[in-house]
């Protein structure tokens, strides 16, 4: 890059002065204004923006909740109840934050589904995908530690069970658990460090989101057809076309969010977490938050302690290598007659795992969870690699514009591009 | 008033789009305000804090010439049982000598009891003068060690950078030897 002032085309002298030295306005215009985006997005492409909005909502409400929260075992529960009852609008902040976590996972699960269905993880978007899996892992850690902070019964016993997972590792397991706890049980040191990390990690997530978007803006977005735009006739500028589409999706999303917050704020929570933590009594039926249930089911499906832990971590680790497990060059499931039903069956398996994960560990749920878990792994390790060799995909359209313009011949160069932009 | 408004250029009459933009922006501004308000409000003292905003103090044990400090809303309140000489001294001051003129009568409910918020009106330090051994300054009231403001036996500023007298809180005598501050 050339050294010297940026060649700004802004007219306003003050903005121009800034832009020449720090081209943030030019950058925003390039990345969110004229940014060429495939013109055939469906509403699944809203969920990245929705996730970003939710992250902002979570950080904002979280910062204000932290102003009234006390990270001490003797005061945490009461301070949360004080937020609910006494702090001005504290109930609203906490219900937004609490349900925001659920909304965040709903949005991110749909975002991941979108990526898997339309093959957004395939070359050249492998790192984009992997940075997304990193965000997902950070979200899980953040959500888990956040759930411990109210110091209710589910907080305490959830923290106990999840930290004890690490005791499964031979030789070093117990030392790791003691180190995580800062003592010999989940206690005040654990609560303090969880609060510290729960405050830190969202900002780490924001950093990785920045990398995620930076990578996205190098490769450009995938689209429902899974083929690259062939030229300017296949793209439209991000603004106003997708700013409007994202805004509309956001309004619909916020309506759903608001219904959850204002009418059924405790629907997705567990009533036992309104009982203060008691290290002497374990609740009869302990479950993690709903968004962890599929992984919890995999953990319980395996009769061996270490095996269960490894399978659970492995189920997420597989996502990292998904770009290399699925060798098919065709991205979108629309053109993969075999992979499509197998993938949708995988989605069913995840939902089934989520369902049985919330049930007691008894028959028939254990057997169901074993079949579903087996399919989960088989899809990644057997079905996808085999289909890459065996499947005969449907013919891909010539370009994004072609299927839209019914029967039309090749477009005269520039005809479709003219009203949009010159890319 | 109509003649002071700039008339729109005739070739660009207001359009339906202008109206929609105006309505949308107004609606968004109201919405943003409605969202921002709970956040700002949550930082204000909540009702459980406001409920603790009054303090009762017993005066019976305070001998003439003594002073005690009580906490009210997290701040020190000076309660001073003044001697006849101190009252006399406070009332003898001509109004012209005062930076923030106020009669002693206007600052007390009962002559013997001076009740003021113990925070220097300059930059918020707690002035000395509650203990008999403290430096009470030239005027026998309080002396602020931070920047040398001096208050008299009515808690009025007499010398130094402080702009106004020590604040008199709202209080009521519940009985002869008990007050409620706030």
Write the layout of secondary structure elements.
The complex is a heterodimer of chains A (423) and B (182).
Chain A: H1 13-21, H2 24-33, E1 36-38, H3 47-66, H4 76-85, H5 90-117, H6 126-148, H7 153-164, H8 173-181, H9 188-219, E2 235-237, H10 238-263, H11 293-301, H12 305-320, H13 322-325, H14 339-357, H15 365-390
Antiparallel strand pairs in A: 1-2
Chain B: H1 16-42, H2 47-51, E1 55-58, E2 67-72, E3 75-81, H3 84-92, H4 104-107, E4 113-117, E5 140-143, E6 150-152, E7 157-159, E8 171-175, E9 178-181
Task: Give your account of this protein's structure.
The complex is a heterodimer of chains A (423) and B (182). Chain A is an all-alpha fold. Helices cover 60% and strands 1% of the residues of chain A. Chain A has 15 helices and two strands. Chain A has a two-stranded antiparallel sheet. Chain A is globular and about 65 Å long. The two termini of chain A are 21 Å apart. Chain B is α+β, with helices and mostly antiparallel strands and 182 residues long. Chain B has two domains: 13-44; 49-181, Rieske [2Fe-2S] iron-sulphur domain (Rieske Iron-sulfur Protein, 3-layer Sandwich), CATH 2.102.10.10. In chain B, 25% of the residues lie in helices and 23% in strands. Chain B is built from four helices and nine strands. In chain B, strand 5 and strand 6 form a beta hairpin. The longest helix of chain B has 27 residues, at 16-42. Chain B is elongated. The two termini of chain B are 49 Å apart.
Proportion of beta-strand residues of chain A: under 5%
Shape of chain A: globular
Low-confidence stretches of chain A: 411-423
Provide mean pLDDT of chain A, rounded: 92
| Overall radius of gyration of chain B | 26 Å
Q: Order of strands in the sheet with the most strands of chain A?
A: 1-2
The chain pair forming the largest interface, with residue counts per chain, is: A-B, 12 and 10 residues
Give helix and strand order of chain B, one letter per element, not per position.
Answer: HHEEEHHEEEEEE
Radius of gyration of chain A: 24 Å
How large a portion of the residues of chain B is in β-strands, by DSSP E? Answer: 15-25%
The domain count of chain B comes to: 2
Total helical elements of chain B: 4
- What assembly state would you assign to the polypeptide chains in this entry? heterodimer
According to CATH, what is the class of the largest domain in chain B? Mainly Beta
Backbone structural class of chain B: alpha+beta
The low-pLDDT segments of chain B are none
Number of helices of chain A: 15
């Amino acid at each position: 890059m050339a050294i010297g002032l940026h060649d700004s085309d802004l007219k306003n002298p003050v903005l121009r002065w800034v832009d020449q030295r720090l081209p943030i306005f030019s950058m925003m215009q390039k990345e969110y204004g004229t940014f060429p985006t495939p013109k055939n997005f469906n509403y699944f492409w809203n969920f990245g923006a929705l996730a970003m909005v939710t992250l902002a909502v979570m950080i904002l409400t979280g910062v204000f909740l932290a102003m009234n929260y006390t990270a001490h075992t003797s005061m945490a529960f009461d301070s949360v109840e004080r937020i609910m009852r006494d702090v001005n609008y504290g109930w609203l902040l906490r219900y937004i934050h609490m349900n925001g976590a659920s909304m965040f996972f709903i949005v991110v699960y749909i975002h991941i589904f979108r990526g898997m269905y339309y093959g957004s993880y395939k070359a050249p978007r492998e790192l984009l995908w992997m940075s997304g899996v990193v965000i997902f892992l950070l979200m899980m850690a953040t959500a888990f530690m956040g759930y411990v902070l109210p110091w209710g019964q589910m907080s305490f016993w959830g923290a106990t069970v999840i930290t004890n997972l690490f005791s499964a590792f031979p030789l070093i397991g117990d030392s790791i658990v003691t180190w995580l706890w800062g003592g010999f049980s989940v206690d005040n040191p654990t609560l303090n460090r969880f609060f510290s990390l729960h405050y830190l990690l969202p900002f780490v997530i924001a950093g990785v989101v920045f990398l995620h978007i930076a990578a996205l803006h190098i490769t450009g977005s995938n689209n429902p057809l899974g083929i690259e735009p062939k030229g300017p006739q296949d793209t439209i500028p991000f603004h106003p076309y997708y700013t409007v589409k994202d805004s509309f999706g956001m309004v619909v999303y916020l309506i759903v969010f608001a219904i959850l917050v204002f009418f059924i704020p405790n629907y997705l929570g567990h009533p036992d977490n309104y009982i203060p933590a008691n290290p002497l009594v374990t609740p009869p039926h302990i479950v993690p938050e709903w968004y962890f249930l599929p992984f919890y089911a995999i953990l319980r499906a395996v009769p061996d302690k270490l095996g269960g832990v490894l399978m659970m971590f492995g189920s997420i680790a597989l996502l990292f290598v998904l770009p290399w497990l699925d060798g098919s060059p065709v991205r979108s499931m629309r053109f993969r007659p075999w992979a499509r039903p197998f993938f949708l069956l995988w989605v069913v398996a995840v939902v089934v795992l989520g369902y049985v994960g919330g049930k007691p560990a008894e028959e028939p749920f254990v057997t169901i969870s074993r079949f579903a878990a087996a399919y989960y792994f088989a899809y990644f390790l057997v079905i996808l690699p085999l289909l890459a060799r065996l499947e005969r995909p449907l013919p891909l359209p010539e370009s994004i514009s072609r299927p839209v313009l019914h029967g039309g011949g090749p477009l005269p160069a520039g005809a479709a591009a003219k009203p949009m932009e010159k890319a | 008033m109509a003649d002071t408004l700039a008339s729109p250029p005739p070739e660009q009459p207001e359009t339906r789009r202008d109206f929609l933009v105006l309505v949308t922006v107004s609606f968004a501004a109201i919405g943003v305000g409605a969202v921002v308000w709970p956040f700002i409000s949550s930082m204000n003292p909540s009702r459980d804090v406001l409920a603790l905003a009054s303090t009762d103090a017993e005066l019976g044990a305070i001998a003439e010439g003594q002073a005690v400090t009580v906490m009210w809303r997290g701040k020190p309140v000076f309660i001073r049982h003044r001697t006849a000489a101190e009252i006399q001294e406070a009332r003898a001051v001509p109004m012209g000598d005062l930076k923030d003129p106020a009669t002693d009568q206007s600052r007390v409910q009962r002559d013997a009891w001076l009740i003021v918020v113990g925070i220097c009106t300059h930059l918020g330090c707690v002035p000395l003068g509650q203990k008999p051994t403290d430096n009470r300054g030239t005027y026998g009231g309080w002396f602020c060690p931070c920047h040398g403001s001096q208050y008299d036996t009515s808690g009025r500023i007499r010398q130094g950078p402080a702009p106004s007298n020590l604040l008199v809180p709202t209080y009521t005598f519940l009985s002869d030897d008990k007050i409620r501050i706030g």
